[in-house]
Design a protein that fits this description.
Layout: H1 26-33, H2 37-51, H3 56-63, H4 71-86, E1 90-92, E2 101-107, E3 119-126, E4 129-137, H5 145-169, E5 177-181, H6 184-191, H7 209-214, E6 218-222, H8 239-248, E7 252-254, E8 277-281
Parallel strand pairs: 2-5, 5-6
Antiparallel strand pairs: 1-7, 2-3, 3-4, 4-8
Amino acid sequence: MKNARARNTPLGSQFKLSKDQCPKTDEDIAEMAKVPYASAVGSLMYAMVCTKPDIAHAVGVVSRYMSNPGKEHWEAVKWLLRYLKGTSKMGLCFKGKDTVLRGYTDADLGGCKESYKSTTGYVFSVGGTAVSWMSRLQRSVALSTTEAEYMATAEASKELIWLKNFLEELGKKQPDSPLYCDNQSAIHLGKNPVFHGKTKHIQLRYHFIRGLISDGTLMLEKIRGTENPADMLTTVVTLDKLKLCVASTGPQVAWAGPTSHRRQGHAAARKGGKGAVAQGCLAERPEGRG
């Protein structure tokens, strides 16, 4: 990969990865066993956890095939490595303009064509720079875009609570923390705790967000889909959209050296499969949190 050409996006739109591309014959399996797929994905996870929220979705996708990767999966990993080559000298920069916590959440509908589960994506920033992010498949199949977005918002609100408490322990008092969503119906569902025939099947665990809104823990606000930085955590985006998302999650500056920005990271990642998680946070969680 030393002389490989750099790529502009984490994952090309031509990649349509699935289990159908996994090797099925003993010969193909033996051939792919020679490929350092797991170690390469592990290296990508390390970069994602520390300072690269822009590759979280791509890492989550390639992680699903760690148990039996195929040639197309390996091509996607190499593409991702080429993207890192082109952005290796870039990192998050904290300007210290404020300490306000802001969250952005998004979901695609049925993004996984094998399980038809949707992808939850969220990113939280402090002072305009990302401090926590995640991309992973939802636990159950959503029946509508509203349901998928609502489930993603509920998942993000749990992270918001932890980050808010963490910042306040550091003496950084937080006002009503905004959580931005680009689906008006999901926002309406969270702010209006009334019975809806079309949403009565949504599990109770997702409705706790209503209490957080009513007691002022968070403010669920609308953001345009074209301006939502969490979009890069749920789907493959164009170069222009990627630039907007990256710019919205913090200034990107060249590192002065490997010791100039020391951060601790936490990753929650299973050994591949449908539930593979790509998650990063610049604050180390207590044991068992993740």
